Structure formats: C-alpha cells, structure tokens
Automatic annotation (TrEMBL):
Belongs to the MGMT family. Residues 1-71 form the Methylguanine DNA methyltransferase ribonuclease-like domain. It comes from Thalassotalea profundi. GO terms for biological process: methylation. Its main location: cytoplasm. Pfam families: DNA_binding_1 (PF01035), Methyltransf_1N (PF02870). It is found in: Cytoplasm. Gene3D superfamilies: Methylated DNA-protein cysteine methyltransferase domain, Winged helix-like DNA-binding domain superfamily/Winged helix DNA-binding domain. This is Methylated-DNA--protein-cysteine methyltransferase.
Amino acid sequence: MYYTTYQSPFGEIILTANDKGLTALAFTEGEQPINIDTKHHKNNTYFLEVITQLQQYFSHQRTTFDLPLAPQGTPFQQKVWQTLQTISFGDTQSYAWLAKKISNEKAVRAVGSANGKNPIALIIPCHRVIGSNNKLTGYAGGLVLKAKLLTHENASFIALK
C-alpha cells in the first residue's frame, strides 16, 4: 500500500494505491479524510501518472482519466461507481438517473449512499451527481468544493446561496 499527497488548486489531496491501482483520492479538507496507517508507505514516484493527469484536469487539458483503479467496496457499490464513470466532464445527473442506469429504480437512497462512499473522488466523478431539482446535494468534500469542481467543468447546477 502506497500513499502520497498532491496540492491541487482546490486544496491538498491524499492518494493511496496498491499494486492493482489507485484505491483512494480524498481532499484533506473533506468530511471523509483518508486514514493513512503503518501499512501505507510514502512513494511519490508510484503516483507520477496520477499526478500528471490531475494537473492536466486542473489546467483544462484533460476531461477523462485513464488510470488503473482498485476501489474497495461491495458489488452494489462497485456497480454504482462504474456507472458514475459514464457521466461526462461538464455533465450532471441525478440519483434517480443513476438508480435507473443500474436497473434498480427504487434504489435511489442506496445509490446515494454508495455514491457517498466512493473512495476515489474526482476520478470516479461522484461530484457530478446532483439533485433532480438541479441543486447541489451532499459531497464528502463539502458542497463548496463540489460547486468549485462543477464550475471548473462548466456544469449546469443551481448555485449555493
């Protein structure tokens, strides 16, 4: 298990990975910080491609990520996270859309919970899920950060007051 930090324009990010790929990406100011323990070893070179792609994203040179991902979660969570990756840069979708997309229209709350447990924020774009009314809803990094990310992508949403 490896980790490193990256200073993004929107705050410090902690990255973790194993030999299969990226396991977590979280903003340190978020509501769900990553827990680094003695199993994790600092390794900046392991994350060179991740950091390159993040720099390209933040400088408007990249709209998709092409990285090996290894998020840990239940089969249901994995299905939700894979579906999240189909939401394009600059687009937003609702929790109801996400539930319908995984063929489980009644699972809107479960989809919301899985979305909130996404360990690889930004790259698995859970920030692109908003309420059916186009308003911002929960985000592990906080609604201010969610608004900044969506604004960065020129996405349409109803701003915070």
